[in-house]
Sequence to fold (138 residues):
Amino acid sequence: MSIQTDVTVIEPVTTPRRARGQRVRSVRSQNVAKRAVFYLFMAVATCIVLYPAAWMLMSSFKPSDQIVGNVSLIPDPFTLANYAKALTGIAGVSFWTFFTNSLILATLSVLGSCSRRPWRPTPSRAAGSPGARCGSRS
Fold:
C-alpha cells in the first residue's frame, strides 16, 4: 500500500516592487509638501506677530516728530534722545523713582499672593517637590 501525499505550495501574493516604491515616494513627497506649506505659514505668522514689537523698538530711535508720520522701520536720523529724555523723567519725577515704585509694588504683590493662604505640605506636595509652591491649592 502506498501513501500518496499531494503537497500544494502556495506562493505569497506580492505587489510589484516598482508600484510599491512609487507609492512610498508619493507619500513622502506629500509629507514634504505639507511641511513646506506649514513652515511657510508659520514664518509669515511669526513676521506678522513680531512686526509691532520691531516697529516699537525701531521707533524708539526716531525723533519724536517722526514716530507716527514715518512708517519705515529704519530711522532716518538715528537718535538716542528719546532714551535720554526718558531717564530724566516726566514732570520732574525721575525714571528711577518710577522704577523703584514698580519694584516695591511687584514685591508686595508676590508676597501678598503667597501669604494669602498658608502653605500646607501634603503627601503629594511635600517640600522640595515640583508641586510645592506658594498659593497652591489641593
